């Protein structure tokens, strides 16, 4: 009596079923169908409605520059004022961390964020924010950075260059924040920024291209370092 031997079935194919060769294209669903993926929702920007008298003047066009507000001695309480006057301002996260403390209910953990806002052309602001969620902490720091935006006077204070371009600081400035002491010295054109990574990025956001810097103290503490840099650059406008 002869016995018939059936050939082995191909891999991935069972009796009465079609072979499965994959999970479908990257744009499809898990079952391999061609159903299109749901489009991603774009973030909706909130329309700024001024609430203060200064905000209403900016919205109506009575005040057209940040220098007018500073010279008048008015206080900026709305981040929308800065966004209206400086539409090219962009924000960047400088540092994030975790803050922990013991309470009666146990250990409390919050996130801390430091954000810098600048347009790389003579304006810089730095803010800090804390929250139980990282996203909210960054939003608070961004809003605070817009409120702290200060004009910076750029120039060429280097005796080696003596050009009329605004690529450095007009004179040597010193600033402090906590235990950090920073000094910015004007440099000739083509030198670049002689500074550390995060300090260099803050100076780039302010609009500096050539300068020497010296720093003393606990510079890894970005809260104190960023305050010292902002203190330095504010003096170029107040003393110049």
Structural features, described:
With 240 residues, this protein is an alpha+beta fold. The protein has helices at residues 53-60, 66-72, 79-85, 134-147, 197-206, 222-238, and strands at residues 90-103, 106-118, 123-131, 150-151, 173-177, 180-186, 193-194, 211-216. The strands form 2 sheets. Strands 1-2-3-4 form a 4-stranded antiparallel β-sheet. A 4-stranded mixed β-sheet has the order 5-6-8-7.
Largest sheet: 4 strands, antiparallel
Order the strands across the largest sheet as they lie in space. 1-2-3-4
Strand percentage lies at 15-25%
Total strand segments: 8
Q: Are there runs of 5+ residues with pLDDT below 50, and where?
A: none
The ordered H/E elements are HHHEEEHEEEEHEH
Helicity, in percent?
25-40%
CATH topological fold name of the domain at 53-151: Double Stranded RNA Binding Domain
Number of helices: 6
Radius of gyration: 28 Å
CATH class of the domain at 53-151: Alpha Beta
| Average of per-residue pLDDT values | 83
Instruction: Give the second-level CATH assignment, the architecture of the domain at 53-151.
Output: 2-Layer Sandwich
């Amino acid at each position: 009596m002869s016995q018939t031997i059936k050939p082995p079935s191909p891999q991935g194919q069972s009796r009465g079923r079609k072979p499965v060769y994959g999970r479908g294209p990257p744009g499809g669903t898990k079952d391999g169908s061609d159903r299109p993926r749901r489009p991603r929702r774009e973030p909706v920007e909130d329309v700024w409605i001024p609430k203060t008298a200064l905000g209403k003047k900016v919205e109506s066009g009575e005040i057209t520059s940040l220098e007018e507000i500073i010279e008048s001695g008015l206080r900026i309480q709305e981040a929308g004022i800065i966004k209206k006057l400086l539409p090219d301002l962009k924000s960047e996260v400088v540092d994030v961390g975790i803050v922990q403390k013991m309470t009666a209910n146990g250990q409390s953990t919050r996130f801390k964020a430091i954000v810098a806002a600048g347009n790389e052309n003579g304006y810089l602001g730095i803010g800090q924010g804390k929250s139980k969620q990282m996203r909210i902490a960054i939003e608070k720091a961004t809003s605070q950075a817009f409120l702290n935006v200060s004009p910076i006077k750029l120039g060429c204070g280097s005796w080696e260059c003596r050009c009329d371009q605004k690529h450095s600081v007009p004179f040597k400035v010193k600033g402090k924040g906590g235990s950090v002491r920073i000094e910015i010295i004007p440099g000739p054109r083509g030198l670049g920024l002689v500074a550390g990574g995060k300090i260099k990025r803050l100076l780039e956001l302010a609009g500096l291209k050539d300068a020497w810097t010296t720093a003393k103290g606990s510079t890894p503490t970005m809260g104190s370092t960023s305050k010292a840099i902002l203190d330095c650059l504010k003096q170029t406008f107040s003393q110049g």
